[in-house]
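Researcher: Please predict.
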Amino acid sequence: MFSKILIANRGEIAVRIIATCKRMGIQTVAVYSETDFRSLHVTQADEAVLLGGARPSESYLNKTKIIETALATGCQAIHPGYGFLSENASFAEMVISAGLTFIGPPAAVIAGLGDKIAAKKLAHAAGVPTVPGHMSAVQSLHEATVVADQVGYPVLLKPAAGGGGKGMRTVTRPQELASALALCQQETRKAFGDDSIFIERCIQKPRHIEIQVMADSHGHVIHLGERECSIQRRYQKIIEESPSAAIDETMRQRMGRMACGLAREAGYVNAGTVEFILDQSGDFYFLEMNTRLQVEHPVTEMVTSQDLVELQLRISDGQVLPICQEDVTFTGWAMEARICAEDPDRGFIPAVGLITRYAAPRGNHVRVDSGIAAGSTIGVFYDPMLAKVITWGPDREAARKKLIQALNGYHVEGVKTNIDFANRVITHPAFVSGDLSTDFIAEHLLDEHQRLDPPVAWLHFMTIATTLIHNLRENLIRTSLLPLKPRVGSASHPPRRSVYVAKSNSDVFNIQLQKESTEFDWQIQVDNAAYHVITPPPEFYRRRLKLTINGETHHFRLRYSGNFTEVAFCGLVRTFEIYDPREWELARFMPPPVVKHLDNVLECPMPGLIVETKVKPGDRVFRGQELVILESMKMESAVASPCDGLVESVEAKSGDAVETGTVLITFKRR
């Protein structure tokens, strides 16, 4: 077995690989960019070596520097993780040529399967059903137009190289094809150094099912069951689970046999994933094969009790797979949520900044693969994924409820995340029932009008949480912070019964707190509903709160701003203000707040780098017209005009680094 390996990656996957290496007694060398010098993977590895600047091309995509570092530090192998160079055939070839071991499949296999067109042809030859489409990359917009007309709209534009959803777009009508193709080519050229795009039919409302395979160099190939990865946004997975509620044992075995057959046909070695889409009639089609470890591999580990990184290491060391297909067993259900630095309330724009507070959930059958800690800096140059929360239960519902609790208790401050959005997904009735497709988020969660009214009990629980903290602070001021208050003739303890009014949005709740025989035991009434609540020891500014309400434990996250308290629970985020009855009577006389905003400027919606400015002073523009192309966290986004008008000045040019709120374009006032 290797004594030392280099990990050619960053973030949570680098930390994940380090964990297995430590358990196996293998030393690790981390590499990092200038902006990652304080990152978690740097501090946890046995050694760490600076590669270069913040841009991936200067660091994590610098093949020569990575290999030189591995040789200089005495490593025998390189683990690429996922992303960056993990599916780069030339890098794998360079690693082998340098006398090192590449922890992944052979370079020729990566080249064959990493090219989506070649992989589709191989699957077709192996008898695996494929999605109807064009078998070659389009060479021009004219050819793309002809092919799309032949395939039939909607069509899917896909990069021939790479994966992870980068460079993929759905085109629903001919008028969208030109701009979509240009953006796809730009993204895939930057992400993978190849702008080849092919076109296939877009299957309506499919489920995304993938099969995990492991193959050694002695001809043994096994599968470790399926993963359901249908919950996606812009082809980026958000929630994954294993097994899938849509797959029975017969289909599982059939898909597994096909995945293993494809791997044998390709001469595959190491960990790989064969991805399928399942249509509404129950037919499935080959999508692609990812020649690397997948982001969502922990759910497979949780239900099979296999360490996939350890299997990768043993296979790369030339060992025979320690298990055969008959040894693979599946126990219970696992579910994973990807935690990303993005703002779901503002169109999922990337978020950057310094993580000021961090507390990960803990507990039995709760796993957190994280690449961050308090003090971590999140920048614009890398993928926005920060961590993954994985839970296990004896069945799907148990795993789901445990994931809800874990996300309720996951506390990240300083950077916006999708934690509460992920919780909204898994608490949605359609998700609970297992009615999933890749259109799930667009169908149920993106439009404000689609959102369901929250259960009244949830609002009551949130009201209880914020009112108890308010009561604690009020009593602390009364008993501890007013030392000159006359003590003679006054009560020696805070009152055991308190009455308040809680307001959140347009909802108003009347709440009564009645302390029972012990300090932490309460009878609480919210409107006409009664609850028995047990609280933890008091803390003045508690940011994570665990309450036992009617015998069931619930976790809440709280954030304070003056007299307002923001509470997050089960994907619901509400801001509360608490009044005593007299304050509530006077509150109706308070004037509403005045909100001021500029109406003649285009502001940057997120931090990033300006790729292109499409207008100049004097140009007439129309509402919704793309004016600026912005790159952030490896994705390009178009910033549209907020109005019809004339451009007065252009404040940003190509190559500029911009922050959220930066004025990009000023329009002439009418």
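Model: The mean pLDDT is 91.
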